[in-house]
Specification:
The complex is a heterodimer of chains A (259) and B (292).
Chain A (H helix, E strand, L loop, with lengths): L1 H8 L12 H13 L2 H23 L8 H29 L3 H7 L3 H34 L11 H25 L2 H19 L2 H10 L1 H4 L10 H28 L4
Helix pairs in contact in A: 2-6, 3-4, 3-6, 4-6, 4-7, 4-8, 6-7, 7-8, 7-11, 8-9
Chain B lengths: L1 E10 L2 E11 L4 E5 L6 H8 L7 E6 L14 E4 L11 H12 L5 H9 L3 H4 L8 H13 L5 E5 L7 H16 L3 E6 L2 H5 L4 E6 L2 E7 H5 L4 E5 L2 H10 L4 E3 L5 E3 L3 H11 L3 E6 L2 H14 L1
Parallel strand pairs in B: 3-7, 3-8, 5-6, 6-7
Antiparallel strand pairs in B: 1-2, 1-4, 8-9, 10-12, 10-13, 11-12
Helix pairs in contact in B: 3-5, 9-10
The chains are: A mainly alpha (259), B alpha/beta (292).
């Protein structure tokens, strides 16, 4: 049994009896988002689409949109559309691939795992934002349209754009946690906006849609510095489509039988 | 140490684990036997904090598994070798868990060698793994944190005979160094060569437990003859206790020599004479019931 002696004598770090910290667990969750075949290609796909959309927006469309702001809105769009899917898979793939058996055996406090996933989701959304901003700046510099206000972009709108991406990603995480299954959660996240636009054609529901339909209430985030009413609409949408699913999800994750 | 105290679990209105108590001491390998659906997996899930018992207590290293600060460093767990992300490479699957536990990633290479996954196998995605390779990866994963306790659900499943032999040596070595091992199986022969002690459960209840030697031997002699009535008469004439065996012939509470002598005295021709395998008989009955 010389082989086993070698392996079992191999170096171990010290913290045998210390709980893995949240930053370490969040690092693990970030790693899990890119270390599988699907995860890797989704991230690469988002990056590729950001570049494509940025270039297209600098080339086609109205000349007055060829500003940093216009190009940034285009570059952010693929992330806004796909980050929810990444958020969903971050939770639901543990159930579909049954890796919960490993994850929860190593970290029995399941709410800590969910908090780590939330932190990783926020970190990824922030990274996507800065990558989109970098791409937009580069494309703007190269195309240098020479129209007035090319580079003028309010810091507040930048912050709002960041809020949009974080919200989209965490909403996905919420759907994934609530349903614990990839396909229904992805369908829900794509069907909801469609459902709202159908419902909004009914006049009486149009008012409600402005408060509850993310595709309407989130639109000003990337457009202009928002007023209080607009923030209230964003808050209402998030309370219904983020906090409620996440709360249900936390409850389900904590009590579910893992198998 | 591993201990269950009267643990009970109900799932979907059915009692799948019913008042199960056993104890595994350091330095021993406990075989946890039972037909499919007997409640083995549910018991192991309760021990590892993945499922909460409805009654009783499941203890690992003297306390609840969920209270362990960094459980991977104390308890190695393999509950289902198929429960790995298909799209992740084998080596990466170990690296992710090493990161959670705070184990030096340098340890991974040694473990991959130990379980016999070479560089090319370790670089493949788990989707391409055979069941035997998944099982080896799962064992490496269980050993990753250099644990004191191993809890393994059907670890021999999918291993070829050399693999079985390798695992037997590995677990024996682990126990000899003071480790505690609990492993389940639905196949008696996988476990009887491996375990020091056995617990057998059926329909959620413990039906037998003890050392392997207690359960395997001392259960008398099995004897068969073409002329069974004559054999019965000869054995009865020699004042031997006997009962009919399920597989034909009789099981007699005596040494084979005494049984042979009784047959000779009665002039009965034997076609089989040997020690009775009590455990096998018990286990055969359980699995036969399952098949029925």
């Amino acid at each position: 049994m010389s082989a086993s002696t070698i392996a079992l004598d191999a170096p171990l770090s010290r913290d045998r009896s210390s709980r893995p910290g949240l930053s370490r667990l969040a690092g693990v969750e970030l790693r899990k988002m890119v270390d599988t075949r699907a995860g890797f290609w989704v991230q690469l796909g988002v990056l590729g689409l950001m570049v494509t959309f940025a270039i297209l927006s600098a080339v086609i469309g109205r000349a007055e949109d060829h500003t940093l702001h216009g190009i940034l809105v285009a570059a952010v769009w693929p992330a806004y559309a796909l980050l929810p899917v990444v958020g969903i898979l971050l939770v639901s793939s543990e159930w579909s691939q049954r890796t919960t058996l490993i994850t929860f055996a190593l970290v029995p406090q399941r709410s800590r795992v969910l908090v780590a996933k939330l932190s990783a989701a926020v970190a990824l959304a922030c990274t996507s934002f800065f990558v989109a901003l970098g791409i937009a700046a580069l494309v703007t510099a190269i195309s240098s349209p020479g129209i007035p206000g090319t580079w003028s972009l309010s810091g507040i709108v930048l912050g709002q754009t960041l809020v949009l991406l974080v919200a989209a990603m965490v909403m996905g995480l919420g759907y994934g946690s609530m349903l614990l299954s990839s396909a229904p959660a992805i369908v829900l996240s794509f069907v909801l906006p469609l459902g709202w636009s159908a419902l909004a054609s009914i006049h009486a529901l149009n008012g409600a849609a402005r408060w509850l339909d993310g595709s309407k209430s989130f639109a000003p985030l990337v457009d202009h510095v928002m007023n209080m009413t607009e923030w209230a609409r964003v808050g209402t949408t998030l309370a219904v489509w983020l906090l409620v699913p996440l709360t249900i999800g936390l409850w389900r994750i904590r009590r579910s039988e893992v198998g | 140490m591993i201990e269950t105290q009267n643990i009970t679990k109900r799932l979907g209105g059915r009692t799948v684990v019913d008042d199960v108590s056993f104890r595994v001491e350091p330095g021993t390998i406990m075989g946890f036997l039972g037909p499919n659906g007997a409640g083995k997996t549910t018991t192991l899930r309760m021990l590892t904090g993945l499922s909460a018992p409805d009654g009783g207590r499941a203890l690992v290293l003297g306390g609840s598994y969920r209270e362990l600060p960094n459980p991977g460093r104390r308890v190695g767990v393999l509950l289902d070798a198929s429960a790995q992300h298909d799209g992740r490479r084998g080596r990466e699957a170990l690296a992710v868990s090493a990161q959670i536990m705070g184990v030096d990633p340098l340890r991974i290479d040694g473990l991959l060698d130990l379980v016999g996954l070479d560089r090319s196998a370790a670089g493949k995605r788990v989707r391409q793994y055979s069941l035997g390779m998944r099982q080896r990866l799962g064992i490496a994963h269980a050993l990753l944190g250099d644990p004191e306790v191993l809890i393994l659900d059907e670890p021999a499943n999918g291993l070829d005979p050399p693999g079985m032999r390798w695992m037997r040596e590995l677990l024996r070595d682990f126990a000899n160094r003071g480790g505690t091992v609990l492993l389940s199986s639905h196949l008696l022969h996988e476990v009887e060569a491996l375990a020091d002690r056995l617990v057998i459960i059926d329909l959620g209840r413990v039906v037998a437990q003890g050392t392997r030697d207690e359960l395997l031997s001392g259960k008398g002699t099995r004897v068969r003859a073409d002329d069974e009535p004559a054999l019965r008469a000869a054995l009865t004439a020699a004042n031997l206790n006997l009962r009919p065996s399920d597989e034909g012939g009789f099981v007699v509470d005596a040494e084979p020599t005494d049984v042979g002598r009784a047959a000779l005295a009665g002039g009965v021709v034997l076609n089989q004479l040997g020690p009775s395998d009590g455990l096998e008989e018990l286990f055969f009955n359980l699995t036969a019931k399952e098949a029925a």
